[in-house]
Amino acid sequence: MKSVHSPAYRVLVDALVEARKTAGLTQQDLAHRLGKPQSFVAKVENRERRLDVVEFITVSRAVGLDPQTALRRVESALPVQA
């Protein structure tokens, strides 16, 4: 499933946004931590840009979210396959 609009991907992005806000960070603050422009963060949060696994880990750590915790949330949102 490659859609950035899949339910599981929404769960992932929502977890990152929630963690950013909980940490009291603006998109600009996060972008600065990542060495990226604010538009990078906005595109990720608006699901216009998909994160690869390395970017996901980097963003997770930058907002204080354990990547494994976020992945467990995503896993629970995936349909069970036989």
TrEMBL record:
Pfam family membership, one: HTH_3
Ranges where the HTH cro/C1-type domain occurs: 16-70
Highest taxon of source: Bacteria
PROSITE patterns referenced in this protein's UniProt entry, alphabetically: HTH_CROC1
UniProt cross-references to InterPro entries, sorted A to Z: Cro/C1-type_HTH, Lambda_DNA-bd_dom_sf
CDD domains reported in the protein's UniProt record: HTH_XRE (cd00093)
A GO term, aspect molecular function: DNA binding
Name the record gives this protein: XRE family transcriptional regulator
Lineage: Bacteria, Pseudomonadati, Pseudomonadota, Alphaproteobacteria, Rhodospirillales
